[in-house]
Specification:
Elements (H helix, E strand, L loop, with lengths): L10 E3 L7 H7 L26 E8 L2 E5 L5 E4 L6 E3 L7 E7 L2 E6 L4 E4 L6 E2 L8 E7 L2 E6 L4 E4 L6 E3 L7 E7 L2 E6 L4 E4 L6 E2 L10 E5 L2 E5 L6 E4 L6 E2 L1
Length: 243
């Protein structure tokens, strides 16, 4: 298949899964904004609204990088410069992607879930939920995905999934793993933590805004709303402080 430049209008292309645009700007972690990336390959990164537009999510493994950005297909690259559009056999928009156990898993609207061993050939999976899945991460030898209505699903291989009880009906928008802990964030300032992806507890965030993203870097979790006007930091996922 012929390689083409990666173009995602209204998308911000990130170096990896992590906090929202505002938090990344504050942390100096944004790869590019409105300019070419890697050898002059054009990337359309114009914001589409005050919240910063959509965010392209990436995962790397098996010598290839996979990116998703609110499309039913994915993009792949082996050098970070030339990107190839790959069909997934899926019709729903994809929000996030993770790699683990030799497998890529991407999740999206209406419980959409697709898997691939090589990033090139994809097949639909069964997520055991019809809720919109907004985030996925791999940690402690398992995948954990989260989404609307407090939905949480887990899998060791990316193929066989189990629905878990999160203890909330709030919509969950993102998830990260670090320090042996999964942390999910969502609407009304909800923050959930779990050591195993099965038993979850809600921790006080001190805010009521919609938390759109979370990442783990340099021993700290960083959660943010879409605009980056609210940024929370925690070392353990339990005690949070505003930045």
């Amino acid at each position: 298949m012929k390689s083409t430049p990666f173009k995602a209008t209204g998308c911000f292309f990130l170096t990896d899964q992590g906090p929202g645009l505002g938090a990344l700007l504050m942390a100096g972690l944004l790869l590019a904004a409105g300019r070419s990336v890697g050898g002059g390959v054009p990337v359309e990164l114009q914001a589409t609204n005050s919240a910063g537009g959509a965010v392209a999510r990436k995962a790397a493994g098996n010598g290839i990088t996979v990116a998703v950005c609110l499309r039913p297909y994915v993009w792949t690259s082996r050098d970070g410069e030339c990107w190839v559009e790959r069909q997934t056999g899926n019709v729903s928009l994809l929000h996030d992607v993770a790699f683990g156990s030799g497998t890529f898993v991407a999740v999206g609207n209406e419980g959409a879930l697709v898997t691939s061993r090589d990033g090139v050939s994809w097949k639909p999976g069964y997520s055991r939920t019809d809720e919109r899945l907004r985030g996925i991460v791999f940690g402690s030898e398992k995948f954990v995905a989260v989404g609307y209505a407090g939905s949480v699903i887990t899998s060791k291989d990316g193929v066989r999934w189990t629905a878990q009880k999160s203890g909330t009906e709030e919509c969950l928008h993102a998830i990260a793993f670090g320090h042996g802990t999964f942390v999910a964030v969502g609407r009304n300032g909800v923050i959930l933590i779990s050591r195993d992806g099965k038993k979850w507890s809600r921790e006080p965030s001190g805010v009521s805004v919609r938390l759109e993203s979370i990442g783990y870097r340099e021993g700290k979790f960083i959660a943010s709303d879409a605009a980056g006007s609210t940024v929370l930091v925690s070392a353990d996922g339990r005690k949070w402080a505003a930045r």
